[in-house]
Amino acid sequence: MTRIAGRYRRVEPRAAARAYLLGLLSSVERKNCWQLAEQAGHTRPGPMQRLLRYARWDADAVRDDLRAYAAEHLGADGGVLVVDETGFVKKGRSSAGVQRQYTGTAGRIENAQVGVFLALATSRGRALIDRRLYLPQQSWCTDPERRNAAGIPDTVQFATKPRLAEEMITAALDAGITASWVTGDEAYGQDPRLRAALEARGIGYVMAVACSTRVRINHGRTPARADTVAGRLPATAWHRQSAGNGAKGPRYYDWAWLHIDTGSHRHLLIRRNRSTGELAFYLCWSPTEVPLSELVRVAGVRWSVEECFQAAKSQAGLDHYQVRHWTSWHRHITLAMLALAFLTALAVDSAPEPPADAHHPARSRDPITLTVPEIRHLLTAVFHPPAVTAARLLHWSNWRRRHQATARRSHYRRRTVDEPTG
Q: Can you give the residue ranges of every domain in the chain?
């Protein structure tokens, strides 16, 4: 709070921001304004709702503080920027950017918002450091009435997800984030403009691409599909290496790499699952020569952003919001990212240096280092509010039921108006 306090000009939103963050770190079941206000001891959700909607503060400025905070604690050792998106399933059509679209969160087409995120991953840990709300072109960008109702600024125009990723990467590098690599899935790896922008900045990349991607091998005139190239490789072309440690230990795959096009530092990287034989493909570029093990390491880091999403949603309420406005979405998401960065920083700073005999059998009985869920559990106990009186519980029960009754009357009235008369 000391870092971001100056972003709030008045004491009221500053106090509300602190209460909001403590609520995000608490054990509250659903971290929306109503339950966070009850957790904070407020008699109504007004202060929390004003914090997200009307109070004067700049969520992008707090995002800048968050980005610097994360970089300070994560360090720069082997830094990789990871870009990915996540969905927020919603009902109705009023929430900014919502429409029926595919989201990996649900694994199918759903009525949802989609946010594009940037994570910083180093040898010490990982954290989300930037976010953009994707605004669909047809259903939102060309509908002034809908844009105005959701508070979308006139300056915000349609941008593809790779363009949003490029904006965030550029902003992070311009802010002094030290990273030598960028990685992302096919949605970003297939975009030539994004890859060209990274090469222009001298930032290496390992980007997933489709099996149908065509590459030119050995200066050949005719490009070949990536899966066709993989099928022609001899057994000696494959090397077994770990893509980093997962929940169950090292993640071993078979890997092959080939020089492509005319650049000596441009490769097609192929990953083969040892059990199923399933293949994955990556386009790689680096400003200097690097070994296969480095490309494998960067490819493996991409999964860290999925861990960030899971932790942000389960530990900091990233997807618990109930807001429709453009400004409110960015404010809640930013504060949830800050809460996660705080937990991550505590986990990183509390981790002891690995002992020289870390693999000794006796070490297997040592406890693992503090994790983000464990730290939040401990903080919940430390900041647990005093026992709530029966009067306070009944007050909030009456508040919720009154507002639910108002909403029900509104829905019934709307249905009655829309129903044709006989």
A: 193-301
